[in-house]
Amino acid sequence: MSHAASLSPQDRLEIVETLHFLNHVIDNREWDHLADVVTEDVEILSPGTEAPESLEDMAPSTTLPGPAGIRQGYELSQLAQYGSVHVLNSVIEPIDGDTAVTWSRLIMVSFDQRAVGADVVDTLVRTPAGWRISRRVVHARNMLREPGRQGGGYVPGPYTFVHFDDAILRAQQSVADAGIRRNDGQLR
Q: What is the pTM of this model?
């Protein structure tokens, strides 16, 4: 984690509350509140298959743009059978005073009491209305059936660290690019 940028304790609290509130929105299917937690141009990437057979199948490949994309993707996916989503923990990496990347562990419980886990890497930006998620990448967890593990699944280990690091680099580049632009989008 870098130490070049920092966030106030209040910013960190608001970021965690944003992450948690999104889960309440999803749990309660309160889609009208998506604007309270995501940007209008939010991008969600999630695994393209719900029955992965390889690491490649687990890679995020389906893009859901905007709040309407989030709702549609959720309602059309296997995730709709999960009645609740719980954030177990989150790591916050500040990029600058107005941008942060988080890595959260989720557990989702289905209506028939099955559970599935995921790692979620979010990029959040400060807006006039507060912190909002501008990009979310969902990484399936423990979904591969490995014969040597008696039905146990794959634990990502360094696999997800790579995605967290990639999100940090992407956000840093975006902030740097925005710093170059001045005077109505003209480059300096």
A: 0.77
Q: Do residues 87 and 102 lie in contact, with contact meaning Cβ atoms separated by under 8 Å?
A: no
What does the DSSP assignment read for 151-184?
A: T-----THHHHHHHHHHHHHHHHHHHHHHHEETT
The full DSSP string for 115-141 is EEEEEEEEEEEEETTEEEEEEEEEEEE
CB 23: neighbour CB atoms within 10 A?
18
Q: What is the pLDDT of residue 186?
A: 55
Q: What is the pLDDT of residue 125?
A: 97
Q: Identify the pLDDT of residue 49.
A: 52
* CB 116 within 8 Å of CB 46: no
Q: How far apart are CA 163 and CA 65, in angstroms?
A: 19
According to DSSP, the residues that pair with 46 across neighbouring strands are 62
Q: How far is CA 119 from CA 56, 73, 105, 161, in A?
A: 16, 17, 5, 10
Indicate the pairing of strand 181-182 with strand 186-187: antiparallel
Dist. CA 157–CA 44, nearest whole Å: 22
Nearest to 112 by CA among 78, 71, 138, 140: 78
| Integer CA distances (angstroms), 25 to 36, 42, 61, 86, 94, in order | 9, 16, 24, 12, 25
pLDDT at 64: 67
Coil, strand or helix at 54: coil
